[in-house]
Amino acid sequence: xxxxxxxxxxxxxxxxxxxxxxxxxxxxxxxxxxxxxxxxxxxxxxxxxxxxxxxxxxxxxxxxxxxxxxxxxxxxxxxxxxxxxxxxxxxxxxxxxxxxxxxxxxxxxxxxxxxxxxxxxxxxxxxxxxxxxxxxxxxxxxxxxxxxxxxxxxxxxxxxxxxxxxxxxxxxxxxxxxxxxxxxxxxxxxxxxxxxxxxxxxxxxxxxxxxxxxxxxxxxxxxxxxxxxxxxxxxxxxxxxxxxxxxxxxxxxxxxxxxxxxxxxxxxxxxxxxxxxxxxxxxxxxxxxxxxxxxxxxxxxxxxxxxxxxxxxxxxxxxxxxxxxxxxxxxxxxxxxxxxxxxxxxxxxxxxxxxxxxxxxxxxxxxxxxxxxxxxxxxxxxxxxxxxxxxxxxxxxxxxxxxxxxxxxxxxxxxxxxxxxxxxxxxx
Length: 428
Fold this sequence. Notes:
Layout (H helix, E strand, L loop, with lengths): L1 H21 L4 H10 L2 H10 L6 E7 L2 H14 L3 E7 L5 H5 L6 E4 L5 H11 L3 E5 L5 H9 L4 E6 L13 H8 L4 E4 L2 H9 L6 E4 L4 H11 L17 E7 L1 H17 L6 E6 L4 H13 L4 E3 L14 E3 L6 H4 L5 E4 L11 H5 L4 E3 L7 H9 L2 E3 L3 H12 L2 H17 L3 H9 L4
Parallel strand pairs: 1-2, 1-4, 2-3, 4-5, 5-6, 6-7, 8-9, 8-12, 9-11, 10-11, 12-13, 13-14
């Protein structure tokens, strides 16, 4: 009771004020606030025309990565279960709302007791599934009151998580004690979840369901990917930089200049795939490249006659192409790791590409596994990045070995979906 009072008296109002203050300078937050304005009306309308089935599974995730983890589970139970999705980040909104296996998909409104109760009454879930770690206290407490089972899938809780701190742990225990099953991705994560739970809670190691999703996509990528890049006009080794932010690009382009100085006649082709290729971001990137005097072209400007041999950098200003481009890479760089959290390192690994990323990988257990086994390199500076690229470019056998290690890691971790479904099917 005490923790509910504290959370609702202080944390919830602080979140409300924080979001509305930040909306002025953050378009993403502004988009999220706008998307939540009519969420209950939108949800009611969608549910009115949705399939009428005996059981309803409500999946919640924060953004794209967590959605990918939920997808194979959703698709496995879709035929006999109504599916409702809620999400937090605007980045996943278009994908979730157009997802063919969702009966309804809306933003999760602010986590107040009233909103949680309204959502539960509208959706009438047989089961609530949280993907990875985006767990909301009032929703958990209210679901527990209605005796709705809650499961965490592909659960992660890294060692530096603030949830495990001395002051936060009692609060999160008051939340996690209402979660029926924690499906953790590793033994270490399971042990940390145990710190927030009692011995009677079910905490199982099922693995990361995203391995299946990534593997499935990797094996289905079109083999004629070179068509997308001017009919095979890439003459030099190619570095694909996927899901990058400004912070990644600063390091990346500095490393690229170091490589040019080292081998002016035979440096890399760089294919730059920004995380969100908005017109503003593309303009920013082009400005940076012009200041660096790097010859560049946008993907939207390519024609079938284009010859990229004179280009240093190709900017991909179209969404949805990264998986098709990775097969072209000699080396893959994954962004996000110089900004706050690394993005999808599994995808290039599944395609047997050696991977490089920056220092922030606490959010991705698989990134640590790749580094430990030799399938990836972690770098902290532009010089380290340039050195890592040169080392692999100078040794084709080492590149092949690193790529094979990554592909093997993905293969070893398949099966998480079936292990997790055992627990979901108890309720749906």
